[in-house]
Design goal:
The protein has 79 residues and is of the alpha/beta class. Helix content is 44%, strand content 23%. The protein contains three helices and four strands, in the order βαβαβαβ. A four-stranded parallel sheet has the order 2-1-3-4, sandwiched between helices. α2 runs parallel beside α3 (60-70). The relative contact order is 0.23. The mean pLDDT is 96.
């Protein structure tokens, strides 16, 4: 299955999505800011990133641009 990085500043959303994806057999990492998502991605990688658009600090759109430069083949879903 896929490795998924969930990025959202709302912990209940991270928990809900993580639970569903792990039940589906996916390996899931989470981050509550775009900045921490970059650190997780650099350390663990991910096949798919699911990110919120509006977060404190760096936005989801800025995160998408950064990840696209680093890893153009990574699938990204913006909520």
């Amino acid at each position: 299955m896929a490795s998924v990085l969930l990025v959202d500043d709302e912990q209940n959303i991270l928990l809900t999505y993580r639970t569903v994806l792990e039940r589906g057999g996916h390996r899931v990492s989470t981050a509550s800011t775009a900045e921490s998502a970059i650190r997780v991605f650099d350390t663990e990688g991910a096949d798919v990133i699911v990110t919120d658009m509006n977060m404190p600090g760096m936005s989801g759109i800025e995160l998408v641009k950064l990840i696209r430069r680093r890893s153009p083949d990574t699938e990204i879903i913006v909520m």
